Amino acid sequence: MKKILTSFMLCASIVAIQLPLSLQVEAAGVGAEEKPKRKVYLPGPSAGKKVAKAFEAYSADDVDGAIAILNEIDASKDYDKAFVSFFTGQMYAMKGDSIKAIEYLKAAVAPDILNEADHGNSLKLLGDLQMQEKAYNDAVKNYYAWMDFTGKEDGDVWTKIANAYYADKKLDKIIMPADKAIAAYGDKQNQNPYILKVTSFYERKMFKDAVKVLETVVQLFPDKKMFWTQLGQFYALVEDYPKALATLDLAYKQGYLEKESELKLLASLYQQSDIPHTAALLLEKHIGSGEIKRDDNNLASLANAWHASQHIDKAAKYFGELAKMTNEGKHYSKQGSLLKQDEQFKPAIVALNKAIDLGVDNKGSVYMSIGEAHFYLENYKEAYKAFQQAAKDPKTRKYGRVWVNHTKDTAQRKGKSI
């Protein structure tokens, strides 16, 4: 019989239940004070023999056969009933039938007569199975019952309780068991209760509290890149932009920024902090590599960053690419204006005329730029025509007329007809 019990405990020890929400945890308990020894029972000869036979079937990978044998047992004693229910519940759990497993395990723990290890294992397994079945309140009750029975403060179990509250959308209740888990893990810190705390604060829009947790987490888990990126993003949420930039810049230098949204946020923070040249270099690099999509919005950001950093030629280049991509007059207008500023008058005229052809709201300004480009190329006839068009626009009428007269006088002085 001792051999049977030993084998049975081995069976119980290999039953694995996985937490929902992918929160994998490592065992970390704190020893409890010694408590009175629980009375130890042994199954009766008839029940014991059939349980041994069922275990042989299980050992041969015949779980259904084991269950069939157990269901034949007509136990009369309370302990035998509980013991058989315990073993049957484990078999159904192994089979993946959580509903049946819960039914039998409830029957096993109800009389509170199982041996200490079996009773404790049943309570914890019940909680795990109820988590799988989304019976979160029942799961929490059994996790607390397990701690009360064993006298242990276990990090894994506290984390499961916090996770149950998260799954049940009781966000405010997450914090206490998460803190208990952190304390129970002690020096063997586990990231999961911290993740649950951050989630609780974030979903309740308590961003400053989330920041405090993440500030601790990046010190405890400095190699976990997700915490660095989250901390930077939360700094941005609470509008602490200097810390957001410093955190994400450090994360970037460590190779932790991989998502497009993270790279774009860093570039935006550079821009916002009057460091447009660094923003432009970052965007250019990662658009070139494909990590940031080469679309109109991102090209516009890149072009504007180069413009803000006074790299007019590069800004014109990317506005030109943006113009070809979108075929929008406003981008040709911007390209032409920058080319004119960079004294690339001939390509500026091409771009500006394209803007007129496609249609722009600021035609007067575009004609003014066309006129100026022709004027500096000493194409006074074309300049004169462009300034006349600019003079028809109420917004540029005054300056258009001035340039019309100036162009006419200059052409006459140089002996050129208009």
Automatic annotation (TrEMBL):
TPR repeat ranges are 364-397
| Keyword hit for Signal | yes
- SUPFAM superfamilies, from UniProt? HCP-like, TPR-like
Q: Where is the signal peptide?
A: 1-27
Could you tell me the keywords of this UniProt record? Answer: Repeat, Signal, TPR repeat
Q: Which Gene3D superfamilies match?
A: Tetratricopeptide repeat domain
Keyword Magnesium found = no
What PROSITE patterns does UniProt report for this protein, alphabetically?
TPR
Give the matching InterPro entries.
TPR-like_helical_dom_sf (IPR011990), TPR_rpt (IPR019734)
- What PANTHER family does the entry give? BARDET-BIEDL SYNDROME 4 PROTEIN, PTHR44186
- Give the protein name, as stated in the record: Tetratricopeptide repeat protein
